[in-house]
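Teaching assistant here, posting this on the class forum so everyone can see the example we discussed in section. The complex has two components, and the goal was to see what a joint structure prediction looks like when all of them are supplied at once.
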Amino acid sequence: EAQVTQNPRYLITVTGKKLTVTCSQNMNHEYMSWYRQDPGLGLRQIYYSMNVEVTDKGDVPEGYKVSRKEKRNFPLILESPSPNQTSLYFCASILQGEETQYFGPGTRLLVL
Amino acid sequence: GNSVTQMEGPVTLSEEAFLTINCTYTATGYPSLFWYVQYPGEGLQLLLKATKADDKGSNKGFEATYRKETTSFHLEKGSVQVSDSAVYFCALVPGGYNKLIFGAGTRLAVHP
């Protein structure tokens, strides 16, 4: 089954404790992206990757890092989480040349 | 710049009522337009899309027509069901890019 998976689905952590949210897709898509969803703001892009070893900032990259060492994986790293990063995070992937993005189930993060 | 504006929710309807969720956009070039739906506790799913002016996207009884003259992509359904209760996001992809730009989302609640 074609899908995008994220782990963990729920996470409670404390300020400053490094964390990683994993994202994996099994569709051989080149393009992957991270979004955060906040009430009244919709989804905003954090980082994206056009292919392996190619990443770039989206609209709200501050406080986040990403890496793309393999085509299928695109982890989101919070080196020193802060309460303003409490949000719902979605990973998405897309086949180059297509326009429909496939979304993971989301990771709900609470930073205390 | 590129942006999407949706009507604020929540929208509350009785079963079998007619639904309209307004969406207007600002974009350079010729964007593709999308409606995504987020059911409670789930990720986003593509509901329908339209890639050029006057195209009509349709799925599951929902329809939206790409109106370039009014820069709109309103979502409609003739008879809503309780199972349609969800958050609906209007989005665009600027021509030549893979980035989705979302509206703030509209929550729909349908009561029996």
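For the discussion questions: The first strand of chain A starts at residue 4 and ends at 7. The interface with chain B takes residues 4, 31, 33, 35, 40-45, 48, 50, 58, 90, 92, 94, 96, 99-101, 103-106 of chain A (CB under 8 Å). Think about how each of these relates to the inputs above.
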